[in-house]
Specification:
The chain has about 120 residues and is mainly β. About 5% of the residues lie in helices and about 35% in strands. The chain has a five-stranded antiparallel sheet, with no helix packed on it.
Length: about 120
């Protein structure tokens, strides 16, 4: 990962969790070749650092990991990690990436969100 290639390392993206793509507004230029051309490189499963977690939740967790790589010189700009899981009737999302930023979101799987029910008028 290269903090010299990005304008702002790990920007706060609030609830904007992306499982694909790149936040190009935050890309400065490649520190090796000074180009601004990115491509995606999938990370092999054997290269991933495994989180220590319960085996019950591993079955319900979807993890997407890839590298943002310079399209010209293959310099690794950032590793993008996206995670989705179900917890207590909610869909939980998390994104962590030097280029794209950090974000978390939570959405109810119910037709009406109990956390927002008090703000609804009938």
């Amino acid at each position: 990962m290269c903090k010299h290639c990005v304008r702002n390392p790990f920007p706060d993206r609030d609830r904007m969790c992306l499982e694909s793509g790149a936040y190009m507004v935050n890309m400065s230029k490649c520190s090796n070749c000074s180009k601004n051309n990115l491509k995606v490189e999938q990370v092999p499963a054997d290269m991933l650092e495994e989180d220590i977690s319960d085996s019950d939740t591993e079955e319900e967790t979807e993890t997407v990991t890839y590298n943002h790589v310079c399209g010209d010189c293959n310099h690794v700009v950032s590793r993008h990690k996206y995670k989705f899981w179900l917890e207590d009737g909610r869909q939980e999302y998390r994104m962590d990436c030097l280029l794209c930023g950090f974000a978390e979101d939570s959405i109810s799987v119910m037709p009406t969100d109990p956390r927002k029910a008090s703000s609804m008028e009938y």
